[in-house]
Design brief:
Blueprint lengths: L9 E6 L8 H10 L3 E6 L9 H8 L15 H8 L2 E7 L1 H9 L5 H8 L4 E5 L3 H5 L1 H12 L3 E2 L3 E4 L5 E5 L3 H13 L9 E6 L4 E4 L2 E3 L6 H12 L3 E6 L10 E5 L3 H9 L7 E4 L6 E3 L19 E3 L3 H5 L7 E8 L3 H12 L3 E6 L11 E8 L4 E8 H20 L1
Parallel strand pairs: 1-2, 1-3, 3-4, 4-5, 8-11, 8-13, 11-12, 13-16, 16-17
Antiparallel strand pairs: 6-7, 9-10, 14-15, 17-18, 18-19
Helix pairs in contact: 1-2, 1-8, 3-5, 4-7, 9-13
Amino acid sequence: MGHEWLRGRRIVVGVTGGIAAYKVCELVSTLTRLGATVRVVMTENARRFVGELTFATLSGTPVAHEMWAPRDEIVHTSLADFAEAVIVAPATANIIGKLAHGIADDLLSTTLLAFDCPIVMAPAMNTRMLCNAAVAANIETLRQRGVRILEPEEGRLACGDEGAGRLPATEAMLDALAEALGVADAPLAGMRVLVTAGPTREAIDPVRFISNPSSGRMGYELAGEAARRGASVTLVSGPVSLDPPAGVHVVNVESAGQMHQAVEAHRGELDVFIGAAAVADWRPAESHDQKIKKGDRDELELRLVRTPDIIASVAQWDPRPVLVGFAAETTDLLENAERKLREKGLDMIVANDVCRSDIGFGSDANEVTLIRASGNRTPLPRASKSEIARSILDEVQDLLGSRTD
């Protein structure tokens, strides 16, 4: 997304003591170049990794780090008065725990407690620390209080381990800041949206499964667009190879059953549900604990049973969210889509021809028809999935407005 909203904005960047602190130099430099006024607050441990002179030069303003340095102003309150948004990067387990529990024992933690503007945190730490129950609970506490938590990236960590814990890319942090700054005026501000995306995998044995070629991109674009419009977004994702959208809470699942459980955890909490996942309709009746050996057999029979109908179950919720589904069809596209719309009680369905190689599964483009429960049809010509997502969210906003009226 563009970053025009950053021009002229006042941003505080909090830097803590993690090896990823050096990457924040690019963030501060980019913010300044985009026209934001940046003030950096460093912890003492952060100064072990990057010198304050570096950030002072990149931001064009002095770095704050000493709690008791002589000064004419009370720094933590003056920073709170200055800031329109704050981002903490890298956000270590230490600073996450301090903010979650109201601990103020240095300049940054004290300043964070004084802010009443949007706060973005970009966690970066060892995978085992990130997965620690205490850290996970602290992150969830902050998220529930309205702090925007970016999902750490996966890859090789400084310690040599592989896994989640890398600092999000500068682009992702910029997107999160832009969203935070625009959330008050965004069209979906205050709305709670859940999007399902990607395929599911139904295990046959530990090395085989039933699945489909969905890339998840359409659902990820929808989740990202909803977040950019100010919504609080949860993305329940099957196994995909995509980076999480900025500002979106991602719940990773494998099977249709797990996806159903993750969705049901939000019963009664949602304003909008968008079922963009390609959920398997069938699963093996029995999943073997050990690999099925081929042996001398020429055939293998599998007995399949139905998986939970996620979107139909959401239609039974009370209160019921605005409900949008997808119809991935290979024949009689509009007829089959309208039948699904009626049978599942949807507000709108996105009819998607998946037998074409230039759109749909595995493609960056799509061509769909939006069909409302009223019978109104809106064809969307072939375009990027990000453009399609914007058009779908326009219709969702209209459905929300109609419900309010």
